[in-house]
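Hello,

Our lab assistant flagged a job as stuck in the queue for most of the afternoon. It eventually completed. Since we weren't sure the result was trustworthy after the delay, we are filing this so someone can double-check. Below is the sequence as submitted and the structure that was eventually returned. Let us know if re-running is recommended.
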Amino acid sequence: MTIPRKLRSQILFRYGRPWKSLTRAGHVPTAASLPPAQRFLLLLWLPMGAFPAWAQTGASLSGVATDQTGAALPDVAVTIKNVDTGATRTIATGGGGHFQASGLPPGRFDIRAAKQGFADETRTGIGLAAGQDATVDIKMQRSTPTPARAATSSPPPIAR
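-- returned structure --
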């Protein structure tokens, strides 16, 4: 079936290109032929395939720092050390004593918690696998303050 010349001119630029490119045999869709909104959605959709792989590579470590009565301790410096690589990360607990470190590589870790007025607490040998979420709660003991010593000795005599 042939299309009369009079009708060809009417549909010549119906979609922004000559009518022959709209035929089933001659049309090959590409990203450039999509409307801008569909191109934008395509650009958003393509990288989504990489996110599941990212989610499986990192581990996370979380917990709560409390004192011996069970009260939450804010502003505790929690240092997480990767035993295999020696890399460290220090984070502070929030108002409720919670801490969380995500994106950790798989391996063995040591945790050290320190706060003024409390004895340092250490947890060693924590193993994390890829994608694992581990919880390590830390109970800290109040440290006994050492009394200040008064200077009782007299200064040495001055030689003349």
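-- support follow-up --
The delay was a queue issue, not a problem with the job. The result is valid. Residues 110 and 124 are 4 Å apart (CA to CA). The radius of gyration is 34 Å.
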